Amino acid sequence: MSEPDGAAKAAGTAGPMVKAEAVHKHFGRVEVLKGIDLEVASGEVMCVIGPSGSGKSTFLRCINHLEKIDAGRLWVNGHLMGYRQKGDKLYELRDKEVSAQRREIGMVFQRFNLFPHMTAMENVYEAPIRVRREGRGKARERAAALLERVGLGDRKDSYPSQLSGGQQQRVAIARALAMEPKLMLFDEPTSALDPELVGEVLEVMKQLARDGMTMVVVTHEMGFAREVGDSLVFMDDGVVVEEGTPRDVLADPRHQRTRDFLSKVL
Amino acid sequence: MPGSVDTVKPDAAPPEAIKAVPVRHPGRWVAVAVLAVLAAMFVHMLVTNKAFQWSFIIDNAFRPNIVEGVRTTVLLTVLSMVIGVVIGVVLAIMRLSGNPILSGVAWLYTWFFRAVPRLVLAILFGNMGILYTKYHVGGVPFSEQVGDLLGVDMSGTLFSINANTFLTGFMAGLLALALSEGAYMAEIVRAGMLSVDPGQNEAAGALGMSRMQTLRRIVLPQAMRVIVPPTGNETIAMLKDTSLVAFVPVTNELFFQLKSVGDKSFNVFPMLVASCMWYLVLTSVLLVAQHYIERYFARGTALAGERRAGFRALGFGGGK
C-alpha cells in the first residue's frame, strides 16, 4: 500500500529529497555516526527506529545542520548542507546561508520547544513575518488556517503553558508548516507525551503524510511506522543495520540485532 | 476488614462540604504581641525624643534645593541605569558570541570596571580634565604626529569638546556610574541568556531565523524574567550610589543637599533622618515599577496569575 505510492510521488522530481553519503559524526572521542548512507525520495515517509544512543536523533539533526557532520556528504533537495563545493574544496557556509537552507526543512522536537512567551498564533506566524517577510495580515491568516488544520482553531490565543502536551506538539507542527517546508523532520515527536495524547499528534502526522509531505520520523511508534511509513530504517551503534518496507522489517527482520530490538519493543 | 468499595452513584447528592477546624498557630500570635510591643517602643522613641526635631525636618525636607537634589538623583539613576543596561546587553552578547576577540574585549571591560570601586571611578572621571584639555571626536589616531612628521596640518577632527566643561560635574558622574553599571549588568544579562533553554535556540534556528533575530525575539524576552529582579536590585543600589558623585564633585545631588542643610543649621541628625525617608520613598516607587515590569515579562508562565495574589498573601488571612 505504501511502497508504490512513495515511488510514484518521487517520480515527479529529479533527485531524492535527502541523500546521505558516508555521514560520520563524533562528539569528542565518541563516534556517534559511523557512516550513514540513506536516500529519502520526495514524498516518502521514512521512519527511523533503534535503541537510545544509536545515533538516530543525531542523524536527524545533521540533516538540517543543527549538528555539523565530520565526514561524508549530506544533500537536501539537491543542496549540499552547510557547505559549498568548488572543485575538491569545501567552503563553510555563512550563518545566513545555513538559515536559508533550513527554511525548506521543518523540524519538530521531542520537547516541543515552543516559544513560551508567545501565544499559539504568535508561535506560528513569528518566522513567516521575520524570516519570509510576509505581511502581518497574510501571516495571521495562514497561521489561523494552520492551527485549524491541526485541530486547534479555538486555542489560537493560548500560551503554551496553557496547552496540553499533545496540543503543544500540534502547535509545533503548525509552526514548522508555516514556513512551507519541502521536508519535515520529526525527532521522537510523541516520546514526551502522556499515552492518551499520542494519538492526536500521530493523527496530524498521518494527515500530513497523506498530503504528500516528505517526512523523516525518528519514533518508537511501531504502529505508526507500519501504517504510514514507506520505509523503515533500523539503526544501532551509529550504523544503519537494516532498511526496507516497514512490513518486511517488522515482520521478518534479517538481522539478529533488529530481532533483539524488536522483541523488546513490540 | 470490610473491604467493600463504594461505586459512585451518578444521581447521588454531592457530599457535604468539609467544615474542619483549621490548624491553630499560637506562635504567630505570640510573635505579633512581641512585635507590637517593640513597635510601640520605637514609635514612642520617635515621638518623644527631642533630637528628631520633626518640625525642623518637615520644614526643611522640601526646600527648593533639596527638590532639585531629588531631581538630579532620579535623573542620574535613570540615565546611568539605561546606559548601563544597554552596555550590559551588548557586553553579554559579545561575551557569549563565538568571536574570541569580542568575548575577550567584553571580559576585559567587565574585569576593569568591576575591580575599580565606584567612588574611585567617580573621582577619577572628575579629574579626567588633567589628561586632555580637549577631546577630539572623529579624529584619526596619531594624525597630528604624522602630520608633524610630514610638515602638514592633519588635525582632521570632526569636532572637539573642551574637556573641562564636558567632563566635570554631571557628565563625569554619569559616565562613572553608567560604565561601572554596564559591567555588572553584563553579568546579569549573561546569566539571563544562559538560563534560556538551548532548545529555544535550536527551534528558532530550525525555522531559519538568524542569530540576531533569535536573540532579539526569542532569547532576550525570555531572559528578561531572570534579568529583571537583579536589575531592580541594581537600580536601588544605583539610587543610593548617586550620592557618590558628590566627590566628582556634583553638588546638586540629593544627599549632598540634605547634608548641607544639616551642616549649616547645626541640625545634622534630623537631616540624616530626612535622607533616610527620601531614599525610602524613592525606593518604594522603584519597587512598584519593578512589580509591573516583572508581571509583563512573566506572560505565558504560570507565575503571571500568581503575582497578582502576591501582595495579598502577605497578610495572615491566606497563611498555610
Automatic annotation (TrEMBL), chain B:
Q: Which UniProt keywords apply?
A: Amino-acid transport, Cell membrane, Membrane, Transmembrane, Transmembrane helix, Transport
Q: Where are the transmembrane segments?
A: 29-52, 73-94, 106-126, 166-186, 268-289
Q: Which organism does this record belong to? A: Actinomadura violacea
Q: Which residues form the ABC transmembrane type-1 domain?
A: 70-290
Matching InterPro entries, A to Z? Answer: AA_ABC_transptr_permease_3TM, ArtM/GltK/GlnP/TcyL/YhdX-like, MetI-like, MetI-like_sf
| Coiled-coil regions, chain positions | none
For this protein's source organism, the top of the classification is: Bacteria, Bacillati, Actinomycetota, Actinomycetes, Streptosporangiales
Superkingdom is: Bacteria
List, alphabetically, the NCBIfam families matched.
Answer: HEQRo_perm_3TM
| Name used for this protein in its record | Amino acid ABC transporter permease
Where does this one sit in the cell?
A: Cell membrane
Family membership noted in the UniProt record:
Belongs to the binding-protein-dependent transport system permease family.
Q: How does it sit in the membrane?
A: Multi-pass membrane protein
